[in-house]
Design goal:
Blueprint: H1 2-15, H2 17-28, H3 59-71, H4 73-78, H5 86-108, E1 110-112, E2 121-124, E3 145-148, E4 154-156
Antiparallel strand pairs: 1-4, 2-3
Length: about 190
């Protein structure tokens, strides 16, 4: 159990800077003293404490925030494209797509749902899973069906969306506001 926990903590430290800071802070605290005991020699039972509830955030928001942080995905999708040439859009999208691919591969381990090439023949057996196969074209009668692969589909081999550790007020924030500081102090505090 401890080996598995150690690996999970190690892996999360590599992926999540805020979690790494929490582990570092915990590591620096002095170890707890011996377990206090009651007068009869029995170990004292810990008093029930109300656990501080962590603010909830959807894994979908975590994924979208990761795509923005690592690939600027939201920036690209929200950018009005009318003022740009196709070449400019293509050049900008290349990096975004590469970085999105890396995020999706790291979180989900994507691979084709079938390994046949598009255009190659495929048989769909009786009792097929409609979540795995979407039949298009001349679909008549009962299965089995013979056809060709139009798209190989995709499947995830894992789902490892990082846990969020922020504050409740920022649970809907995909990307924080970036501020370039030009001076310290507020306008009202500066001499005129």
């Amino acid at each position: 159990m401890r080996l598995g926990l150690a690996f999970r903590v190690w892996w999360r430290i590599l992926r999540d800077a805020q979690f790494a800071l929490l582990v570092d802070e915990m590591w620096r605290k002095p170890p707890k003293e011996a377990v206090p005991s009651e007068p009869d020699g029995e170990p004292a039972r810990p008093k029930p404490t109300k656990a501080k509830e962590k603010p909830a955030r959807s894994d979908a928001i975590n994924l979208l925030a990761s795509l923005q942080r690592e690939a600027r995905f939201v920036d690209m999708v929200q950018e009005p494209l009318a003022d740009y040439s196709d070449a400019q859009v293509g050049a900008a999208v290349r990096d975004v797509l590469r970085d999105c691919h890396e995020v999706l591969d790291r979180f989900f381990g994507l691979e084709p749902a079938v390994h046949q090439q598009e255009g190659s023949p495929i048989d769909v057996a009786d009792g097929y899973d409609p979540g795995r196969f979407r039949l298009v074209g001349a679909v008549e009668g009962p299965p089995p069906f013979a056809g060709r692969v139009v798209h190989h589909g995709w499947k995830a081999t894992r789902c490892e969306v990082p846990q969020w550790t922020g504050r409740a007020g920022s649970r809907w924030i995909l990307a924080p506001v970036e501020v370039e500081v030009t001076s310290s102090g507020s306008e009202s505090e500066r001499p005129q």
